[in-house]
Structures are given as C-alpha cells and as structure tokens.
Amino acid sequence: MAKATKHIAIYGKGGIGKSTTTSNISAALAEAGYRVIQIGCDPKSDSTNTLRGGDYLPTVIDSLRDSSKVKLQDVSAIGFKGVLCIEAGGPVPGVGCAGRGINAAVGLLQELNVFEEYEADYVLYDVLGDVVCGGFAVPIRDGITDRAYVVSSSDFMAIYAANNLFKAIGKYAPSGGAKLGGIIGNSILPGYPESLITDFAKRTGAAVAGFVPRSPVVAQSELYGKTVIEASPGSEQADVYRKLAAHVAGNENLSVPSPLNVTDLRDWARSWGDAINQEAASFSASAR
Amino acid sequence: MNEIRQRLPRTREKRRGALTAYYGDSAALADELEKEEPRQRIRTYSETDDDEVTFAIRLLGRIRGSVTIIHSPPGCGAIKLEDELKAGGSPWLITNIEENDSILGADDKLREAVDLAYRTWRPEIIFILATPVVAINNDDIQSAATEKEDLYNIPVVPVYAAGFRSRTAVYGYDLVFHALAKYVLKGEPGAPPIPVVNLIGAAGTRTGNIITDLNGAGISYNNVSGSFSISALQRSLGASASIAIDKDDARFLLEWLEEAHSVVHLEEIAPIGLAGTERWLLAAAGAGGSTGQARAYIEEEKAAAEQALKRLRLDGVSVIVDLPPEQAFGIAEFVEELGGVVAALSLTHADSSHAPRLREWASRSNPQVYIQPGQPFEKINALGKLKPALYIGKGEAAVWAARAGITAAAVDSVDLYGFRGVQELAPLLAKALRNPSLSRYLSAGGSSYRAGWLSKSANWHIKQEVK
C-alpha cells in the first residue's frame, strides 16, 4: 500500500525567510528519520541551496527546455540527510511567465510519479512571495497540497501578504484546495511582535504554528551554505526549528481563515501602531 | 494623434463608445450612442465570432510585399489558412508557440522566424502579429523587431493584437493601421498636396466596381484598398483628401491622415445603391479634380442602372439587413430605393460615428436594430419573431436564416459598390425571392435550438453592465 504523503505549501511575503524556514523544517524532519522532498517554486531557484551546499542543480524548467524526456535524476539532488531537492525554476528575469512555469513543473513532477517513487513522508513546496497569480497558486489548488503555512514577521506588509494568501486559501479550499495550517512568526524580536501576530491570527481565525526568534545563528549558518540544523545542531535556534517541524508534521488542525478587508486591516494596524507608541512612552517614563 | 506615441490604439469602446450587444429601435440606439459614455451591455451567453486577431490577420494578408509572422500557437494559423483560402494574400509564417515557449519566452523562435522570412521572400516589410498567448506572457516582440530591422534594413513592425482587448473585431484593423502609422509612415510627404484622392479600403472591401466608376468619372486616386502596397500608403500622405469604401473599417487611418498630415477625410457613406454611389463619386470628384466629367458619367450610369432596376423591384418586401454597419446602412438605403421595407438592421457593432445614420433611420421608419456579431441564437430568434420576407447578410449567417425558413441572400461574393454593384446586388435579391425552395427545404430539418430557447426574447442574454 502506498505511503500517505503529506504535501505542505509554505507561502509568505518576499524576503520574509520562507526558504530559510522551509529548509530548516525539511532538515529537522529528515534528521528525525522522515523521507522529505523540498520543491522550490521560484524562478530564482535558491530554495534548497542550504540543503545541498549550494551545488548547481538543473531546474525542472531548464530540463524541459533541453529535453522532452526528463528523468527525476536530471532535476533533483540529494541534500542533507537524504532530503530530495528539486527546483522548479523559470524563465530568465524579464521574459516569459514564471507562473506558468510553476504550473508546468508541478505537472511534470506528478507525471514522473516522484512522490510515490521516492516514498516521501513529506513534500514541502517553498513558493515565491505572495500569491502573485494563478500559476503560483498551483500548489494550493487542485488537491496538490492539503495544507499551507504562511511565514510572516510583525511588519505590516508581511501581515498584508498573509492576509492576501488567506483570500487565495478561501477561494480554493471549498473545491479541494489547501487549508491553512497556521502562521509561522519569523524573525521575532522581543516585545510586541508575538502579540501582534497572535492577535492577527485570532482576528482571522488562523492558528499560530510557532515563532522563530531573530538570531545571528541563522545568518551565520547561511554564510556557511548550510541550514541551522546542519551547521549548529546543538544551538537553541536548531531546537526552535525542530519544535516547529514537529508541529508542522503532526498538526491536523487545519482551517479556512477569514481575511480582513482592506479597511479593517488598516484600522487593525493603526490600533497596533497606537499600542506600540503607548508602550514606548511608558517605557521612557519608567526609565526616567 | 497622441496615440501614435502609445504602443496600442485605444479600443473602439474607449474611443467611440462602441457597443457589441444591443436590442432596440434606431431612435433609442441613436440616443444611447450620443451619450458621452454609452452604457455597455454584456452577453451572459455568447457564441463564437471573429476577434481583433482575425481582422488583423486579414488586413496584413492584403499588404503587398509583406510577410506576416504570426507569433502564436498553431491555432491562429487555422484562421490564417481560412483567410488565405478565401482571399489569397501575402506570405506568412507561424512560430508555433508551445508550452515551454509560453514559460521561457519565445523571442528566440521569433528571431529565427524573421530570419527565415527574410531569407525566403526578401520582403519590403515584415509584420510580427502578437496573439493571446503572447499578450498574456508579455513576450518581448519589440526588441526582436528593432534588432532585425537594423540587420535587414527593412521595417519590421510589431502589431500588438491580443484577441481580448476589444469586443469589436474591427479593432484589429485599427491595430494594423496604428502600427503602420507609428513605424512606417514616419516621413513627411515633402511635396505640396497633389489633387488625388486616397481610395481607402480594408480587408473585406471589394474594389473592382468602384475603381471602374472612379476611372469612368475621371477621378485621380491613390489606391490604398483591396491588395495595396507600402508605397501606395506612403503616397497617401501627399494626397489632397481621403475617401473610404467603408469608412468604419478604415477609420483609424482616415483620422490619422487628417490629424497628422492634413489629408482631409471625406466623410461619405459607402458607395452602395444609386444615391449612395452618386454622393460618394461627387465627393471624390471634388477632391480628385473632375466634377464636370464625374457628373456626366454619373448621369449616364445612373440612367442605365435605373433601366435595369425596373424589373427588379422589392415593392413592399420586408427585409432584414445583417452586415457590418456601413454595408448595412448602404444596402438598407438601396432596399428602400427598390421599394422594399427595412424591418430591422442587424449590425456587428455600432458607435458614436453611426449615431447620425441611426437618427436618419429613426426619422424614416425607425427600424429595429440588433447588435449581434455572430450570435446565431439571437439572429434565429429575432428572425422568428420578425418574420421578414428577405434576409440579406453574409453566407455563414444566411445559412441560419434559411434554416429558419426565411428567404436569404448572401452578399459575400458580390462586389456591392458603385453602379455595377447595384446591377449585381439587385438581381441577387430578386433571384432569392423567386426561389424560396432552398429555405423551405432547409427549414424542414427543424431548428438547432429547442422551442424553450426560442420562446425567450431575442435579447434574453443581453444585460446592462452595472457599475
């Protein structure tokens, strides 16, 4: 009997740390003994760099361009602890249509029977930025994944992007698309950020999957071309990722969130702006 | 015309408030089109019809010395093939965009196609026609065109059709004329205006009969109609005036010549019927410098035509005319000249430029007006309710009329224009009325639509856009 593979999509605003978070979750799951596939759904093709030491990996789209008969070994590399790394790729910047590229790449992987062949326990899709068009929504459509996580910091634009993703989930979930696993708070500094993300989650009916504190260990590991799990396995930050990976692996509490409309989101953000001002003022007063 | 600086001309909807769905009488439509912003209607059920790509393909095929590269998947080649079988035309290639090209961009394929076109035909000009896939994935046509233009030293002209920007297929002509104005007709004529009139026509206009009349009337003309050359287009900048066989089709070029080069646009309606031809020829003669000779010619030809028409009257016959606007108005007027009654006009589109004609019709018999590009269901439905004695339209729709039991005359293969056009068209109509057996035979097979559908009103699927 075929193994039940969990397909998980990770979304979030550009530059928010999706690839770092996804790669560390993949590494932690692989370290725990699971068979994991990570698919970078981004024409930049840099999602799996830290899992495979930055070696060159032909992308699915490049291989499709060169040959109509693409084999799994042509477009994949075995990375840290056996994580199968795949990059969908896309056109060179400024030409073509990357959204269609994601669509075609995912279609090819399904044709190649990759998930069954590799007997994966988990497949993680690390998807470019926000949901920018129908092509980038492919991983959460058509029953490809049944769950999506959104990476967000406490910055307004990251929350805004998360709210947009909720709209896409709301659109596709009723027809068999992915539901929301939760928000992953990333780059969290001490103070209000955790409360802000928790409050946003509460207002939209979303869960919080975990918080990843801002840490120089992450930057240092990436400078070595590795995940935190590989470069600093004994660090507190590695444990944060292990805990997050365990949650993502075991969480069955999926929901269809209720995104805020633009006006409500603005008002909500303003209320947090006021709260931060008051906190700063009381801090200054107590310091005097 | 600031639009020449833009990549695209404005759509007919934006430029003139064009409507492609309507149901009402002439007066109400004239009222609507005279508004600053006519209210658009949408179809909740729509049947397939031509689009801007189809029309652009047709017009590009009529430009002599050109090669057209259709930058598209294979399907657009089918449109081109159909047009070529009907009308021949200049050579063409298709880039056959595949899925990979839609992802990675197909500009390399496009460059190869330009090279192949140049090597094979040594054309004076190469057109690159964009299509829906290219419009969606934003393939870079401009850089390929610029690069190859520098290499071969001939104009390589992008035509940015998309297939979905406008609901009026005639916008495809605007796209081609805009591209020619922007990239080809850049120079000044240099010399003072010469006393010739530009004869302008687009892809669907037959020219033989009207050219016979122009020659007979001694009118000097520069022929930019039917199958025309780039040099004729260049000469058009130095003419004293322009007159169109079908001013609706050639509207963009006519307006641009007037605005950019002071070539007066003679706003005459199509030279169809006796009065229509007379007015048109006199207007052309005024610019082409031979009014005296033209008058003598007109009198002679008119007398001969009137003699021939005595046996071909349509007295009391109710008629529906289903054609593009200029042809429809012209033929409707001719039907009245023959004593017929215009029960309804069915147009492919109508815009503010048609309001005066509709106003005239409103003051005469105020016929019903349907705007239904294609749309067999709406046509059959309206025909069933109106029950005219005669349907006049193009072959593909005349079939639907005949199947609905209405005597039908298809005018595709007729040169409608000028005094000889009168003598081709009138016998065709008379013959159709004398031989109703075809429509009787075809209608015996039953309708393509169920009774429940046909019991609905003809505009059942036309809704007003709510903003």
Automatic annotation (TrEMBL), chain A:
Its EC number is 1.18.6.1. It catalyses: N2 + 8 reduced [2Fe-2S]-[ferredoxin] + 16 ATP + 16 H2O = H2 + 8 oxidized [2Fe-2S]-[ferredoxin] + 2 NH4(+) + 16 ADP + 16 phosphate + 6 H(+). It is an enzyme of class 1 (oxidoreductase). Its cofactor is [4Fe-4S] cluster. Keywords: 4Fe-4S, ATP-binding, Iron, Iron-sulfur, Metal-binding, Nucleotide-binding, Oxidoreductase. GO terms for molecular function: 4 iron, 4 sulfur cluster binding; ATP binding; metal ion binding; nitrogenase activity. Pfam families: Fer4_NifH. This is nitrogenase. It comes from Paenibacillus durus.
From TrEMBL, chain B:
It holds the Pfam family Oxidored_nitro. Residues 56-426 form the Nitrogenase/oxidoreductase component domain. It comes from the Bacteria. GO terms for molecular function: oxidoreductase activity. This is Nitrogenase/oxidoreductase component 1 domain-containing protein. It comes from Paenibacillus durus (Paenibacillus azotofixans). The lineage of its organism: Bacteria, Bacillati, Bacillota, Bacilli, Bacillales.
